[in-house]
Each structure stands twice: as structure tokens, then as C-alpha cells.
Amino acid sequence: MFDATLTVVLLVAAVVSLFVYTDSSGIPYRDGDGLGVLLVTLGTVPLLVRRRAPVIVALVVAAAAFMLSFWDYASPTTIVVTLIAAYSAGAFAPFTPGLAALAGLVGSLNGSIALANARYPDAIGVDLSAATFATLGFVGVWGIGRAVRGRRLYTSELEDRAERLERAREAEVRAALAEERARIARELHDVVAHHVSVMTVQAAGARRTLRRDPDRSVEAMEQIESTGRIALAEMRRIVGVLRGPESVKVDRSEARAPQPGLADLTELVGKLHDAGLPVDIRVDGMPVRLPVGVDLTAFRVVQEALTNTLKHAGPTHAVVTLRYAPTELLVQVDDEGHGLAAALDGHRPGHGLLGMRERVALYGGTLHVGPRHGGGFEVRARIPFDEVAV
Are 105 and 62 in contact (CB under 8 A)? Predict the structure, then answer.
């Protein structure tokens, strides 16, 4: 739109000047006619495509400007058009073609000045100093165009690099989430396998006592029903977490290891204390038996939070708070360090935080991770559970 408006304004000014322009330079300008209108049109209209074909535009403008001078047409807008063409050659063309376009414009200008000087030696403003000044002006405008081009390409490269980094980051996050979901699914698979094994043992016991102790058989059947509901709930979570066909290699010793829970916090705290991080455990409310999946999720949240504290918070100590409610468990890990908040400021979160969020969301819970008021860092997870399925 800008180029179209600029071209129309310059074309109208050039046509009008053909018929009305006069000066006191001593050059008898030719009256405006159809040939003059054709030449100024040829030398102005190409500006419409100066961004797409800057070299061709510059050469056409240079040729038209020389022909106007050769036929002694008055066109004061020609100098403006040629300067715009020189800037466009610098701003939108590669170096070598742009330099060739500049040479064509400077050659046309100096050729016009030499021709006018030869025809009208007494004319004002057509001597060697005028040619030198005009040449320097064209080179300066072309240089400005080159500087603008370099800045534009640099900015474009930065934007492309930022986009590539963002795409790489998104791919890394997706891969981390897929790996974490696969790990969660493996752990839930072990939980379901445990429940199914318990159901099998209970069913065998109920079958053996069915005739001689019906009441005990009924009790065993009720336990089978309760265990089956838990297994079905965990199975639904497995299906929910496996939203894509990820394939992850699993170490067999890890697959055979029993899944940890909050009962293993003492062992975890002991290991962290040996590594240099003292940890206190506080329990609010009456501890209740948690579903195996919730118990595992709570342990993983504490484990990841304390690992981050050990890595990033510097010399400090941490407090793990477990707050039991009838239908939810609140897990909170606080430290008094300063490193983790600073490390996360302006950087993307680690895969461990993404994994914690994924685990808690699997049970319909919420996770808050961030600096504490007064210093330090906190991880707070609210994990609801169905006490009927315990």
C-alpha cells in the first residue's frame, strides 16, 4: 500500500513537472509531450515492485532517467525516484547484485551530468563537483539500505531461532511427559497386578471355606469386591495416562522392585540426611489407609520436591507436611533455600516438576510450585481420594 501511494504521488508530480517546470540553470528544457510522459511513467511505475525485484527496478529507473536527460525533459522528481531505487537496491538485494544496481544508477547520473555539461557548458550545476556530490549521496543512501537490510535479516534470524528453540522445547516437554506417563502407567500396572493377585488368593480362600464357614466366605467375597473396585479404578487411570503409543525401555530390576509409599519416607529422609539435607516430617490429622496409587503419588511428589531442594536450594533444611482429611491428602514440602526459585526464574521448569503435575492431575488433584513468602520454596499438592476404594 505504501509503495503504491508513493508511486502514484511521484508519477503525478513527474508528469506535472514536464509541462510546468522552469528554472534558471541555463538548460532549455523540452516541452512536455507524449514521449516525455512515457519516459517518466517508465521511470516511476517500477517502484511498485522495488521490494521484490530491486535490481531490475534500479536498472530500469537508471535507463529512464538517462533518456529523460538525453531528450532534455524537465523532471525534478527523477532524482527522488533514483534515490529510492538506490535505497531499495541496498535494502532488498544481495550485496553483489545490489552493488551492480548502484553502479548502474551512478553511471546514469554521471552520464546525464556529462551530457548536459557537453551540450550546455555554461549551465549551472552540471560540473564535476555536482557529479561527485551526487555520487556520494547515492552511495550513502545505498549504504543506509544495506544497514537496514542487515538489521532486518538479523532480527529475522533471531525470530527464527526463537521459534526453533520454542519448537524444540515443546518437543522436549512432550517427550518428557510421554516418558513420565509411561512410568506412571508401569507403576499403576504393578498396583493393579498386586490387587489381582490378592483377589485370586481371596477367591481361592472363599472357595475352600464356602461349605464349612459361609460367613467367612461372604467376608472374603466382600474383600474381593472392594479390591476389584480399586483395581478397576487404577486400570481406568492407566488407560487415561496412556494417550499415545509410547514405547519406553524399562530396566528389569526396576520393574521387579516394589512400589514405594509414604511408609518409605523414613528411609528416603535418612538417605537425604546423609547427602547433606536435614528433613523434618510433620503429620496433621489422623493418618488413614490410602489407595495404593495415591500413596505412590504422594511419595513421588515428596521425593521429587526434596531432590530439587538438594540440587538447587543450597545449604538449608526441608519440612515435609502430610495433612490428612477424610477425602483428600495435602502434601507440602518447604525449604528455606534460595537456589531453586532463582534457577527457575526465566527458565523452563524441569521434567520432574512436569512429572509431579502429571501424577497429581491423574487423581484430579492440584499442584502449586513456587517461592514462599519470606524466602525459600514450596511444593504443595492436594490429592483427593475415595475412601470407599481404600
Answer: yes
- Quick check: 195 and 227 in contact, CB under 8 A? yes
CA distance linking residue 287 with residue 283, whole number of Å: 8
Domains of the chain (ranges; CATH) run 2-126 (no CATH), 173-252 (1.20.5.1930), 260-389 (3.30.565.10)
pLDDT score of 148: 93
pLDDT of residue 360: 87
> What is the DSSP pairing of strand 377-384 with strand 366-371?
antiparallel
**SS3 of 369, please?**
strand
- pLDDT, average across residues 62-68: 90
Secondary structure (3-state) at 166: helix
Per-residue pLDDT of 154-172, as tens digits, reads 988 898 898 888 888 888 8
Query: CA–CA separation, 141 vs 137, rounded Å?
Result: 6
Does the predicted model carry a pTM greater than 0.85? no
Angle, helices 292-312/265-274, rounded to nearest 10 degrees: 10
Name the phi and psi angles at 326, rounded to 5: -60, -35
Q: Over 50: is that where the pLDDT of 26 sits?
A: yes
Grade residue 303 by pLDDT with cuts at 50, 70 and 90: confident
The one-letter code for the residue type at 319 is: V
